[in-house]
Amino acid sequence: MKSEKAPPKNIDEYISGFPEEIRVLLEEVRKTIRDAAPEATETISYQMPTFRLNGNLVHFAAFKNHIGLYPAPTGIEAFRQELSVYRGGKGSVQFPVTDPIPLDLITRIVRFRAVENLEKAGKRTVKRNPDGK
Q1: How many angstroms separate the Cα of 92 from the Cα of each of 4, 59, 85, 86, 121?
Q2: 126 in helix, strand or coil?
Q3: How far apart are CA 54 and CA 118, in angstroms?
Q4: Mean pLDDT calculated for residue range 86-108
Q5: Quick one: pLDDT at residue 1?
Q6: Which residues contact 105 (CB under 8 A, 6 or more apart)?
Q7: What stretch of H or E contains 67?
Q8: Mean pLDDT calculated for residue range 77-88
Q9: What gap in Å lies between CA 86 and CA 72, rounded to an integer?
Q10: Residue 21: Cβ within 10 Å count
Q11: What angle do CA 78, 23, 107 make, to 5 degrees?
Q12: Sheet holding 48-52, edge to edge
C-alpha cells in the first residue's frame, strides 16, 4: 500500500517540507508577496501557497529546478516582456533556483494583481503607477 503525505495545512507547513536552500527562496518570495499586498490573506489552494485578496491573487510553489509563480494570465501578460527571459505558460512563470529570484519583478506583478482584484470588487484602494510600483 502506497502511503501519501498529507497536503500542507498552511504555508509554514508547506515551506518546512523543503531543503534549507529552497526554504530560503520560498520565504523570500512569501515576504515579497506579503510586503506587496499586506492586506492579502495566506492559505493553501491547489496544494500550493496562495495569497487571496478578493479572490486568488497569486500562488507560488517549489519544484526540483525552479520556483513557480502563478499570478493568473493577466499578471503574465502585463509583464510579458520582462518575463520573456523565463520559461512559463499562460498563467505561470518559472524562476530557476540557480539564479537570483527577481523579487522586484514579483513585487510589481503582485501589486498589479492586487489593483486588478480590488478594481473587480469595486474596492480600489491601491494606486497603480505606470511602472507597476
Answers
A1: 26, 9, 13, 10, 23
A2: coil
A3: 7
A4: 97
A5: 44
A6: 79, 82, 83
A7: strand 66-70
A8: 97
A9: 16
A10: 8
A11: 25
A12: 41-45, 48-52, 56-62, 66-70, 92-96, 87-89
pTM comes to 0.87
Q: Which residue has the cell 520565504?
A: 27
> How far is residue 28's CA from residue 22's CA, in Å, rounded to a whole number?
10
Tens-place pLDDT, residues 6-21:
889 999 999 999 999 9
Amino acid at 61: A
Q: 55 is written with which cell numbers?
A: 479572490
Whole-angstrom Cα distance, residue 73 to residue 84? 14
Q: The C-alpha cell of 34 is what? A: 506579503
Residue that has been written with the C-alpha cell 491601491 in this structure: 126
The single residue listed with the C-alpha cell 500500500 is 1
Give residue for cell 498563467.
91
